[in-house]
Amino acid sequence: MLRARGAAAALLRLAGAGASAQSGAAPPLARAAFTRGFLGKKVNKEAIEKEKARLKEEIGRGYFEDIAEIRKNNGKIAAASKVIIPEVDAVKFPELAVESPDGGALHLPLVVPAPQDQGSEAADGVTPEAGDDVTPDASLVCLSFRASSQKMAESWSSPFLDAFGADKNIHVYEVSFIDSWLLSVNPVKRAFLKVMRKSNNPQRHVVYAFGDHYDFRKKLQIVNLLTGYIYLIDRQGRIRWQGFGSATQEELLSLTASTSILLDGK
Question: What does UniProt give as the signal peptide span (predicted)?
């Protein structure tokens, strides 16, 4: 019996738990195992609850409901901005990682760094990637979640570039979302990017966002994935104008006027 107790005590000491066992406290290894298990359960529970909410939302709104909304309103799920959104009312555009067919990668929106943070990441956005000459004074970001809405994006980007193409501080980003897990895997993703359309205009960037985009959509309150979403972003990464679907002449005039105000006030 004594020999068995001695062996048990030796094992506890080897595990670094002899003193804790004598005082009645849980051994360090046991505490570590408990902590990992507790945190793991907590994280898993949060992930499960989040996924349940997501499924409930997506099941509650079906594909045919999206189709009906698009056909009824010609892709206009909401009215476009009539005038520029004031700075005090403007919200930040959520950070989004994108990649281009030429192998480049960046994070949107590009923002000008604060004076004390020159050369480093700004507090309220993402500074330009290395090699970028300048932060755009205004960026038109066109989001397409399905191939059918890419033409909608071009109905905005082409006239925008026609109007402001001479200004080097104007950029357009046509973002296509790729949510297929297979296409998001690195070897397949690289092959996919090689065959995708490219832009010869240095101010027009055709880029792709890979992977799950649910959290990004939630931040922008995007529900219907069959239409296009258009945002005019200023140098601080704020949304100053927004539109939906295909551009109308009246909406293009509003976008042009808002962009001119941004350029005049830079």
Answer: 1-21
